């Protein structure tokens, strides 16, 4: 089994990626000994994280299988921007050296990864995949909302359990450090966890004669993770630059013109690179070869995406479904339409 180099491990980003790319499923079925050997060989974990890993191998496995989901959400949110949440193959961690800098992008990565772990664990609990949790045991008896009273039933997502475990595991390394960077990481981790709980929604089923809804049975359910991603993307846009306070115990806004950061805001210390040119030290993959929109005026425009270097245009063939018709009952028939389209890609640095 090949291990990632030790010494550089930022929060969940290295650890969880290691589970998905390096750990063979057979390790988890070797019992306590197999889990201990596996957990002891993950680079960069502090003692508290190794302890939790040994005690909860099924949770580790569940989180490992869900990591692609939150990385995919990160890449969706930034697909049309110079920094597109790109991952770095064969690097010390999944995002390369991006996390060496306390930038807006690093803040978003910490928040979305923390949120992703909460979401994955909550779902695993509700689906009965873990021995240590299931549906929320506190949702019993009667309650009420703006529509009146209802009875708790079904399976309410146990998000509080997931938040508690995620905080204990992910924050353990940062709490050991307690420097300026650790404080911002802890803040952004918490903002990510809170974001998932923000979008819990009450779902109900009506009971009564002819659907009269005399009695309602309700449960709390997580919203689609896209809502969390959209929310954290907005928090990225309004992230607050901070500096350490005079006592070295916390941080405050860097400039008076900035708003005071709340517990829901993302915070960062350092300015971001422009991500125009590939730079291994800053974690920038550059925009050479990226597809751009020649007619747009936003972040995905060729002018912005290509950083003034210009772009190449190529003619490509594309097949799409067209002239779709509904046939009773119940099929949709479409034709395959072929077209030639122009694709514009940014030039690399000269």
UniProtKB/TrEMBL annotation:
Pfam families, per database record: wnt
Gene Ontology cellular-component annotations = extracellular space
What GO MF terms are annotated? cytokine activity; frizzled binding
From the Swiss-Prot or TrEMBL record, state where the protein is found.
Answer: Secreted, Extracellular space, Extracellular matrix
GO biological processes:
canonical Wnt signaling pathway; cell fate commitment; hepatocyte proliferation; neuron differentiation; swim bladder development
Q: Does this UniProt record's set of keywords contain S-adenosyl-L-methionine?
A: no
N-terminal signal peptide: 1-25
Highest taxon of source: Eukaryota
Which key words are in the record? Developmental protein, Disulfide bond, Extracellular matrix, Glycoprotein, Lipoprotein, Secreted, Signal, Wnt signaling pathway
Which SMART domains does the UniProt entry name for this protein? WNT1
The UniProt entry, under Gene3D superfamilies, shows: 3.30.2460.20
Keyword check for Lipoprotein = yes
Q: What does this protein do?
A: Ligand for members of the frizzled family of seven transmembrane receptors.
Which family does the similarity line name?
Belongs to the Wnt family.
Q: Protein name, please? A: Protein Wnt
Species the sequence originates in: Clupea harengus (Atlantic herring)
């Amino acid at each position: 089994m090949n291990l990632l180099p030790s010494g550089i491990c930022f929060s969940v980003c290295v650890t969880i990626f290691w589970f998905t790319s390096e750990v063979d499923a057979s390790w988890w079925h070797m019992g306590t000994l197999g889990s201990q050997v596996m957990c002891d060989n993950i680079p960069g974990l502090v003692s508290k994280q190794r302890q939790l890993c040994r005690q909860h191998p099924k949770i580790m496995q569940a989180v490992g299988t869900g990591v692609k989901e939150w990385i995919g959400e990160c890449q969706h949110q930034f697909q049309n921007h110079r920094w597109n949440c790109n991952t770095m193959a064969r690097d010390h961690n999944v995002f390369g050296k991006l996390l060496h800098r306390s930038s807006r992008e690093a803040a978003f990565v910490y928040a979305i990864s923390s949120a992703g772990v909460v979401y994955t664990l909550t779902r695993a609990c509700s689906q009965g995949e873990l021995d240590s949790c299931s549906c929320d045991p506190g949702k019993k008896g009667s309650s009420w909302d703006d529509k009146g009273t209802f009875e708790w039933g079904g399976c309410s997502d146990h998000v509080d359990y997931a938040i508690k475990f995620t905080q204990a595991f992910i924050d353990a390394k940062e709490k050991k450090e307690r420097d300026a960077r650790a404080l911002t990481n802890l803040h952004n981790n918490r903002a990510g966890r809170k974001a998932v709980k923000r979008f819990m929604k009450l779902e109900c089923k009506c009971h009564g004669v002819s659907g009269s809804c005399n009695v309602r049975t309700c449960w709390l359910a997580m919203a689609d993770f896209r809502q969390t991603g959209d929310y954290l993307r907005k928090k990225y846009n309004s992230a607050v630059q901070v500096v350490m306070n005079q006592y070295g115990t916390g941080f405050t806004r860097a400039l008076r013109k900035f708003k005071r950061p709340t517990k829901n805001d993302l915070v960062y210390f350092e300015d971001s690179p422009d991500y125009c040119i590939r730079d291994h030290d800053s974690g920038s993959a550059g925009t050479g070869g990226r597809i751009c929109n020649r007619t747009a005026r936003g972040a995905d425009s060729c002018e912005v995406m290509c950083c003034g270097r210009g772009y190449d245009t190529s003619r490509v063939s594309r097949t799409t479904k067209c002239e779709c018709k509904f046939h009773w009952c119940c099929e949709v028939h479409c034709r395959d339409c072929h077209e030639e389209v122009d694709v514009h890609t940014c030039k690399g640095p000269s």
